[in-house]
Amino acid sequence: MILRILLLQDTNLQPSEDSLVYIDRHVKMMMARTEEGNPLGEVAAENTDEDSYYLSPVYIGEGDKQQLVMLDFDTGSADLWGIPPLSLHGQIKVLTGVVFTKKALGAVKGSTHHFYDPAASPTMKPLEPKSTFRIDYVDGSWAKGNVVLVSPLPKDVIDGRILSTWGVFL
Amino acid sequence: MKNQAVECATAASPQMFNSKMDGLLGLAFGTISGVKPKGVKTPVENMVIQGDIKDVPVPP
């Protein structure tokens, strides 16, 4: 079974045949969640940093508390992770020992990260037993931290308004 | 969806912050989850188990 992600090129919002990227079957399953009853949901995959990776909008949340994060879908790993705001975990430290403040983080190469704040979810609870995660990727990058459980409402419609047909809603 | 584990990074390599990504969403089976002491299910696995998506094999 072949599934597809439509790529939205920066300069051309009309996906063309050669902009179709075929990846594993799980992706379309997730895309199918974006629209009730539509087996062929789509999610944008934004070409980032000259083909380095693709980012897709993922909404985690409940009702009007949807939180958008731009995630890299990776068929070779099994972790879902984001960066919580500093208020939750204090400063974010990187390998070099440099401590990034939120302001500095946003200033890195002009990028603006979307923080995922589990405390903003009414259903958030700690994972039992108390757990940590550590993920190492083949390019040497890594992340580690804590784990929470959330029970987001699988709603992509709020007050009858479709937020986006291009996002994945958890 | 109920009880989806979301991992909250408190530390990461510089690449993660120098890039535009906010995180990753792994599509592989949860058997290679990086969560300790016990691995967790991925969003896709939970969707299957909880019946949000159908007609696919239930992952191990």
Which features characterize this protein?
heterodimer, A: 170 residues, mainly beta, 4-stranded mixed β-sheet, 3-stranded antiparallel β-sheet, 3 helices, 10% helix, 34% strand, globular, B: 60 residues, alpha+beta
SSE series of chain A: EEHEEEEHEEHEEEEEE
Question: Which chain pair has the greatest contact?
Answer: A-B, 76 and 48 residues
Please give the radius of gyration of chain A in angstroms: 17 Å
Helical fraction of chain B equals 10-25%
Order of helices and strands of chain B: EHEEH
Q: Give the mean pLDDT of chain A.
A: 63
Structural class by sheet pairing and helices of chain A: mainly beta
* Poorly predicted sequence stretches spanning 5 or more consecutive residues of chain A: 1-41, 87-111, 154-165
Radius of gyration of chain B: 14 Å
**What general form of chain B does the structure show?**
elongated
Descriptive overview:
The complex is a heterodimer of chains A (about 170) and B (about 60). Chain A has helices spanning about 25-30, 85-90, 100-105; strands at about 5, 20-25, 45-50, 55-60, 65-75, 80, 90-95, 100, 125, 130-135, 140-150, 155-160, 160, 170. In chain A, the strands form 5 sheets. In chain A, strands 3, 4, 5 and 14 form a 4-stranded mixed sheet that branches. By secondary structure, chain A is mainly beta. Chain B is α+β, with helices and mostly antiparallel strands and about 60 residues long. Chain B is about 20% helix and about 25% strand. Chain B is built from 2 helices and 3 strands; from the N terminus they run E-H-E-E-H. The longest helix of chain B has 7 residues, at about 45-50. The chains are: A mainly beta (about 170), B alpha+beta (about 60). Chains A and B meet through helix 1, strand 4, strand 5, strand 6 and strand 7 of A and strand 1, helix 1, strand 2, strand 3 and helix 2 of B.
